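Structure record:
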Amino acid sequence: MWRRVVAVAAVPWLVAGCGAASSAVHGYHRYSDPSVAMEPTIRAGQTFDARPVDHGGYKPKRGDVVVFSMPSWLGGRDTAQVKRVVAIPGDRIACCSPDGRVVLNGAALAEPYLAAGTRESPFGAVSVPAGRLWLMGDNRESSADSRYHLGDGGYGTVPAAAVVGVAVLK
């Protein structure tokens, strides 16, 4: 009888313990960011899950942390990258406000995910075209993001179709 009680009592604990490993079962993909570009949100080497997005199926949302593939940003390598969506189609983004913050659609942007004392690199105004996104790392001093690709054909923007996943962060 005690074996049955122990077995029945153990089942909920085993099922609960599978939650962390169940992401692959539920279709999520696991990624690791080797860089410091998304700190403090994602530490260098930290793994995280991302909900896959069908090609062209991403519905842009400001604040999302996305996994995307933009080979031109990496010298032709087709490697997944991780950045935050800061501006979506129709937005106008620039830097900096009088207090040194990113300006989105004429207002200084509140970014609680940035580390205290974060300094922005000034950049001129960019209007985000239809079907494209403005992406930035949370560690602004160490992120080669949209600001560093202003000379590219898309003025630093990335096609929304390049997004392959949306990070699921705890």
